Every structure is written in structure tokens, then in C-alpha cells.
Amino acid sequence: MTTKGIILVITIVLLAALAVGTAGCLGGGGERAGDMMKNIPKEAMGFTFTDVNMLRSDGDLDLMYDEWEPQYKDILDNFGIDVGDVDVFTYYYTNDEAAMLIEGSFDLGDVADEMDNQDYENTTYNNVEMWNKDGAWVALLENLVVAGHEDAVNDCVDVAEDGHESLCDNINLREVMDGLTSGFYIVAGDRSEVEEYPGLQAGGTSVEKKKDDILKRVVVYLFDDEDAAAAAADDIEQDFMDQEDWDNIEVKWKGMLVEASSEVNINDYLG
Prior knowledge:
The chain is an alpha+beta fold and 271 residues long. It has nine helices and twelve strands. It has a twelve-stranded antiparallel β-sheet, sandwiched between helices. Strand 4 (121-125) and strand 5 (128-133) form a beta hairpin.
């Protein structure tokens, strides 16, 4: 895949996150997702987290892994990373930039060799090994590879090396995260500029396996005040009821939060 291809993939991922829009470091959401938030700058509009190792190792989630793997195999190959060595795949986005964070059992030396083979320029930023070519930037941080737009990658390095504030310091996202489950898929972000429900500030979604071939989805909405949350609760419930194939719908209003959950068969989820 060319460097233009990498930028295109990152842009598509960014747009997808903005369209889905929905998870901290404490409480719900799971330890792994919280750990990834520690690597993402506070200024991020949101992030998406996939526990690839969980998808790959749980036989009931084979179909989910089969759906994920071909979407990212080529770009991982481009970094010298075997898709089977990836444990966690995360990306974060701002209004106009994004970066991927890839964690796993791969060898960073192999990544550096592949970057060199593809004529990436080797440099450093904040004492971290960096590679760049045609606008695509790659940082090698211990067992973590960060790739994307220059500023987005550099901001992750600043969080890791200089202790800049991370998404763990974003109060809204942490509050949303507290209501989510430790799923294999989590997406969360700022929703203040999205015309969805009046007063909505942030939101998050987690998807986990409940049992066998049944998935549970939890969605948390954070509003700017209790009145806005109360007014939106009925609309949220109706929107969930209108979604085909989803069962066991439950919606709760708690202060400025609305929490909704539902269940679906894996085959119906994949559509």
C-alpha cells in the first residue's frame, strides 16, 4: 500500500468515527481501552478501540474477526506487522487529523526495517524513533506503533514522553466511559457539534459478547443538563425500538446521563 493509501485509510477511519460517534481510564470500558486512552492527547475529539486478540481467541467471535481482518491486513503489512500479532487496534481523531495506535507482540525492529525498505525517512521527535514519507508519519514507542498525520502522531509522543494531558483527563469522556462495559469494541467521542439530541455533549458505545452468539451493546449519552437528558430519554428509547433485530432494550435516565442497552445475534449484527 502506498503512503497515499495510508492517508486515505486514516481519513476513512476518521470519517467513520465521526459518523458513528459514540467511550476512560477509570470505571467501565475495560482496562485495555483505558490504557489506550493514556496514549491519546486530551484534545482528541474521540477514539475507537478494538480488542483484536479477543476477537481472534474467542471461537464465538470468529465471524467478527473475519470481518475485521481483511480491512486492516494490507495496511499492517505495509508496516511490517503480521495481522496475527496485533492485540489492540485503536485510532483517534480531531476535526481534521487522525492516527492509528497498534499494540501487539510484533518486533519494532521489523517495523523499522520495513520503513527503511520503503524509503521512509528516519528521524527522531522527542527522542522517539520516527519515520515519514509523503505525509505519512510513524512513531515507534516500546510495543506501540503510532501512524498517521504528523501532528496527531507527535501529540501521542508528547503524551508518552512529556506527560502531556491525555484522554484520561477529559472529564466528559471519562464519565461516559464509566457507564460502558469492557467490550471488544468501544467508540466514544464529543457529540456537541452533532445534531442528534438537543443538549448532547458526548457519547460512547461498547459491544461485548453476552453469551455464545449473542452480543450486548451499551450506549451512554452525556447531556449538558438533567432536563435535556430527561427530554431525550423517550426519543432514545424509540430510536432503539425502531432498530431491526435488536432485543431486550432497556433505557435508563440518571441525571445528565442516559444509558441504553440492547442485544442482537452476531449474524444480524454483521448484517
